[in-house]
Amino acid sequence: MQKFTPSDLLLFIYRETSLAETIAIAEALKEDPCLYEQYQELLEGYLALPKAKFSPKPDTLQCILSYSESTAPHPTH
Questions:
Q1: Phi/psi at 4 (5° precision)
Q2: Is the CB of residue 25 less than 8 Å from the CB of residue 8?
Q3: Phi and psi at residue 51, in whole multiples of 5°?
Q4: From CA 58, how far away is CA 36, in angstroms rounded?
Q5: Distance, CA of 33 to CA of 36 (rounded, Å)
Q6: What per-residue confidence (pLDDT) applies to 1?
Q7: CA pair distance 44, 62, nearest whole angstrom
């Protein structure tokens, strides 16, 4: 049985694991009560964090889009 670290569990919580890792961790959580307890503690912490919402100013977005347009390679015909 593979050993999973708290870092692995955090990646799982943030959905940053591969499909194979997700399946392996989900199975391990079903079989290992200690691992499941760690997961629950980390999940509670994750859920307690405030959800940040970022909304840049329209001018900022326009600057980014203009820069992107000016530096993008142009197709040659």
A1: -110, 140
A2: yes
A3: -90, 115
A4: 44
A5: 5
A6: 62
A7: 38
* Better pLDDT: 2 or 30: 30
> What's the N-to-C CA distance of the chain in angstroms?
57
Tokens of 14: 């943030």
Q: Which two tokens stand for residue 71?
A: 């530096």
Q: What is the pLDDT of residues 38-63, one digit of tens each?
A: 999 999 999 999 888 888 899 999 99
Domain boundaries, the chain: 6-71
Q: Which two tokens stand for residue 57?
A: 């100013």
pTM metric for this prediction: 0.65
The 3-state DSSP class for residue 63 equals helix
Contact (CB, 8 A) for 24 and 51: no
Give the span between the Cα atoms of 36 and 28, in whole angstroms.
Answer: 8
Sequence-distant (6+) residues with CB within 8 A of 1 are 28, 31, 32
